[in-house]
Amino acid sequence: MMALKLDSGASSHSAYDLRDPNLQGEERHTLAVMVENEPGVLARVIGLFSGRGYNIDSLTVAEVDHTGHTSRITMVTRGTPAVIEQIKAQLGRIVPVHDVHDLTVEGPSVERELGLYKVQGQGERRVEALRIAEIFRAKVVDSTLESFVFEVTGAPEKLDAFADLVRPLGLMDMARTGVAALRRGA
């Protein structure tokens, strides 16, 4: 899975802070786009966004059908309802795109993300970091005498909350995959 954050200048939001920015009239939407897995398709999708000044908060891409050479692009973006409709229509016109689904409006969906967090850990701060990790069901995937690397999986808001709590303890670095999402039910 690949994660990429694009900044077209239209928004100062990061893939590492997917919380509602309270921008007037803008909504957060998760789009699932099925495309041919061939060179240049991702560049065309990204070009559509950057060429029109739209921002992508989160982007993940992976091949989902090896025999059919199909990939799934899951992206989180923001815009007014009219802008979101325009994005979906323009994505649908790109030739190697098979389907465009707006998971935000098509019914309940499940969103998950994986994050790795490197946190300083000595003395009482080490104990507190482990307490917070236990609450969030974070796994310790690396440990030294000076630091931990925690793995957290869950909704983007859960990863944001974990980062907020360990930041005062000495959050040194983090990496996040971006959102993966599927519709619930039949």
TrEMBL record:
Pfam family, one: ACT_AHAS_ss
GO molecular function terms noted in the UniProt entry: acetolactate synthase activity; acetolactate synthase regulator activity
Enzymatic reactions: 2 pyruvate + H(+) = (2S)-2-acetolactate + CO2
Signal peptide limits: none
Enzyme class: transferase
EC number: 2.2.1.6
CDD domains: ACT_AHAS
Chain positions covered by the region annotation Disordered: 1-22
Entry keyword Transferase: yes
Gene3D superfamilies: 3.30.70.260, ACT-like. Chain A, domain 2
Pathway: Amino-acid biosynthesis; L-isoleucine biosynthesis; L-isoleucine from 2-oxobutanoate: step 1/4; Amino-acid biosynthesis; L-valine biosynthesis; L-valine from pyruvate: step 1/4
ACT domain location: 30-105
GO cellular component, one term: cytosol
Keywords (A to Z) from UniProt: Amino-acid biosynthesis, Branched-chain amino acid biosynthesis, Transferase
A GO BP annotation: L-valine biosynthetic process
InterPro entries linked: Acetalactate_synth_ssu, Acetolactate_synth/TF_NikR_C, Acetolactate_synth_ssu_C, ACT-like_dom_sf, ACT_dom, AHAS_ACT, AHAS_small-like_ACT
Purpose of the protein: Catalyzes the conversion of 2 pyruvate molecules into acetolactate in the first common step of the biosynthetic pathway of the branched-amino acids such as leucine, isoleucine, and valine.
Assigned protein family: Belongs to the acetolactate synthase small subunit family.
Subunit structure: Dimer of large and small chains.
Protein name: Acetolactate synthase small subunit
Organism taxonomic ancestry: Bacteria, Pseudomonadati, Pseudomonadota, Alphaproteobacteria, Rhodobacterales
